[in-house]
Batch of 4 targets.
Target 1
Amino acid sequence: MATHQFLSSFRYSDSLTVLGISVCTAVVCEAISWILIYRTSSYKSLKSSIDKASKKLEIMKTETTKITSKKSKTKKIDRVETSLKETSRDLSLFKFKSGAVVALVLFIVFGLLNSLFEGKVVAKLPFKPIGIVMKMSHRGLQGDDSTDCSMAFLYFLCSISIRTNLQKFLGFSPPRGAAGAGLFPMPDPKTN
């Protein structure tokens, strides 16, 4: 009880609470992802095949620019690109099951935080946000001060930045060849 009184008297206690919960949630989500995905042999083989294909594609493209382009070279490049897209799609589908569990955890935590900080200003923005950003940052708050920041906006910003950086730090970021692929890749301009 004394700790709670000390924290509630601290000027930035609500902001730090949201930040701390966001860090803990990111760690829990990455632990879930590690258990369900990153430690499996299927993930490791898909990731290594994406890495190999992207390196091979890079080498083939640099050789094509050095030498005059031939039809057989472009066909080989197209085959490698197609293989890379298919493997990246498979990797995204493989990650989908973990994504559902992580989404459930984030939904529960967000609901808990929403009930704790409902209608409460947790931070002050150092700027006056533009229209759509203000609707997000001022969601659920009373008053006209547009620099007031709700829990939802702060939690959203913290979650995105912390989880992305944690994935990079732990080496769980997507392989570089899989960056643009995914469940809904961009259409290939060559086939359209």
Target 2
Amino acid sequence: MTLPSAASPEYDTQAGRVSDAERERALEVLREGAALGRLSHDTFVRRMELALTARKRQELAALTADLRTEHRWTRLVLSTVGAVSGFGVKLRRAWQAEKLPKLLLPAPGAYPLRIGRDPANGLRLSHDTVSRVHAELIHQGGLWVLRDLGSTNGTTVNGRRVTGAAVVQAGDQVSFGHMAFCLAAA
């Protein structure tokens, strides 16, 4: 029986060492994982430190094992599907916006516009899904801010529920309970 010589390719003493290209590929997988939200900032920083000091390929493999990389075509297909599905939502929102009644934004500098069922509100909405004091619209720092005032059925802006306050502008769709409007400039 003959043993392989040190010069033969079967006896590679450098087989376990990490090349700069392998280290860079691992770092790129870590960067992508952090960008996609798969790693917290602290985990990302710690794994980067470990990747830079890794001496064996197995160490690099362990750092990226849970960050399955997607092929270029997979990313392209997924982003295309996301864009197409998002288009349907935008199309439906645009279609509905033309049908919605307009809610004129008050003149800047005026008092906050209170919205709700209570007759004392600046905008009274007589609907069962609207709270007595539902929301308020105020002009602050050059921006319009819509604030939900603890309503039962919620306030939404462009289909997203407002928790606290949200910046709005002309063209946005707002709803108070089941009553929806399209904001318009005065």
Target 3
Amino acid sequence: MSGEPLVVLTSVNKHFGSLHVLRDIDLTIHKGEVVVILGPSGSGKSTLCRAINRLEPIGSGTITIDGVPLPEEGRALANLRADVGMVFQSFNLFAHKTVLENITLGPTKVRKVPAAQARTRAMELLERVGVANQADKYPAQLSGGQQQRVAIARALAMDPKVILFDEPTSALDPEMVNEVLDVMVTLARGGMTMVVVTHEMGFARKAADRVVFMADGQIVEENTPAEFFTNPTTTRAQDFLSKILSH
């Protein structure tokens, strides 16, 4: 890998009651790397993604971001979350704020960026994701694809070190999926560090530096997209791909 380690998970375990959802996860994500996490439903992909910014506390093990251990709570955690952008399945935009207000809120409140500067930057980002003409609308007036692109712009507005995407296209109508994936591919090629939980194999092939395949709470296999898709080494991955790619 070219970049130095940015997100490092060591021996991470997580239980929901008696269910062992993350089992001894060791994973290092390097600066500028795009890691796509694949696997069947219930394999722990989203839990892993959410653990990286402590939306999901872990039972044991360590997670560090840029060398700093994940804080438990309080201001240190808020500061860390500012460095770790998150784009969810449901867009989680503030319904009572305009698109522009949604994007400037974090930078002005958390990063203490002056309002005029935050607005200028927000408009640049909306332009970049292709929805600058929607700046004064409210989220409910936008299509799902537009809302998700606003959510990506909102994550970028904080100048994060890494952005986590938790199934960002799974709630979208099929015709809107590509407009969001196109924005993500552009980000990936621009050097953004990204961790992407997705079912979109095309995105994984096109944009990922590395594919991490999970099953039953474990990382079963990791490889380059070319190797993973053409030559999976584990039976779990072979089985998963035969089901997915035969459609």
Target 4
Amino acid sequence: MTTAGRPVREALIDAAADLLVQRGYRAVRMRDVAAAAGVSRQTVYNEFGDKWGLAQAVVLRDHERYLDGIDHVLSGHDDLYSAVEAAVLFTLELSADDPLKKTVLTGTDGEELLPLLTTRAQPVLFAAKERLVEHALRQWPELDREAFTEIADTAVRLAMSHIVLPAEPPERVARMIARTVTRYLDIPEKPLVP
């Protein structure tokens, strides 16, 4: 089934994302999402089960797009330190400018959605870690899979904590996480350019 040339699921997620940013979680109604996508309310329920399932789908789709960007960023670097630094900086800057993440973290009714990035963030964290590990091991096959998987989990959690509660400038956080990763793996940092 399609709506305006797009698959129904994508149209519903687009509509829900827009409404979440405009109104906040509590004010979004399934009938409003259905109307914005040009389908029946029952179609929304059939596709997502309930409003929480719809919100999860919005966050996961947003996260997949973000991970596509991370793949691109990682591919642009020859050494692990600068790749991690660039990926973390990309993450923090994108999150700071992303209207959906702003809604989740600071917007109206944000506390309703905050678990999607904190206590119920397993799908987001797992997908990020797995994608990073697979990409890094393709790009740097000499890395120890077990050690890199451990440190990737730590790096993702550190970056998430700085998204939720930023305390330092993004550049500084990016360098700190890159140092943490490379030191854990006993890889020399990229020499500083004077």
